[in-house]
Amino acid sequence: MKYVISILVILMFFLSACSLQSPLSKDTSECASLEGSAKDDCYLEDRKCSKIDNELVRDGCVVELAKIKEDVKVCKLIVTDSVKAHCQEQIAELTNNHDICKEITDQYWKDNCNFHLAVNNNKDVYCSLVKNNEQRADCFNDIAQETKNHLLCDFLADKPRDTCVYNIAKNTEDFELCEELIDSMGRAMCKLKVAKLTEDASKCELINSKDVRALCEEYLGVN
């Protein structure tokens, strides 16, 4: 009896396999009636990624699936390395999981991952992991402005640093912070700005530049 059952199971498996490979088996979906890119686009909209012929379109479809599922493991199905890295970066942002950034091998997307997780969470320590100089500076500057922490401006080159400090001094109306600027005229203009914002005429006399001090006194009506 067991022998007969075994034969029946094997036969059923064989018939099922044949039906899957049969030329009579057709995809009855609307997409199947289309051709070329239109067909791929249709499957893309339906998120039937495995049916897409174009490799890049298929990879893009998997990225969207991974984002819907918020599952970085889905990214492993992607063939193109740069697209896979982009997928990982997107999931890292969606799940706010910085550990995923460590798994990315493509430097461009690794930098983007560290940048966004840093800025989204005000984690300046992640900025140091960004290899691109300009993006790393933007990272420190963005967090400095958001947290009003002028010490982070020190990670920038001289001129951008002064701009960073100036903006924080202006936004916090911190007159004394203007002294941290490297450029002497920058210090004077910073003090002028804060004096105007606070409408405090007594601050004018603390401006070293004679011309800028005169502008301050004129603006605030000092006799």
Structural account:
The protein contains 11 helices and no strands. With 223 residues, the protein is mainly alpha-helical. The chain is elongated and about 85 Å long. The N terminus is likely disordered.
Q: Helix proportion of residues, in percent?
A: 55-70%
Coarse shape: elongated
Largest sheet: none
Give the termini distance in whole angstroms: 114 Å
Count of alpha/pi helices: 11
Computed CA radius of gyration, to the nearest angstrom: 31 Å
Binned strand content: under 5%
**Mean of pLDDT:** 86
Question: What's the number of extended β-strand segments?
Answer: 0
Category from helices, strands and their pairing: mainly alpha
Secondary-structure element string: HHHHHHHHHHH
- Low-pLDDT parts are 1-26
List keywords for this structure.
223 residues; mainly alpha; 62% helix
Give a quick precis of the structure.
The protein is 62% helix and 0% strand.
Any chance you could write out the topology, listing elements then pairs?
Layout: H1 2-21, H2 36-45, H3 55-69, H4 81-95, H5 99-103, H6 107-121, H7 124-127, H8 133-147, H9 158-172, H10 184-198, H11 210-219
Helix pairs in contact: 2-3, 3-4, 4-6, 6-8, 9-10, 10-11
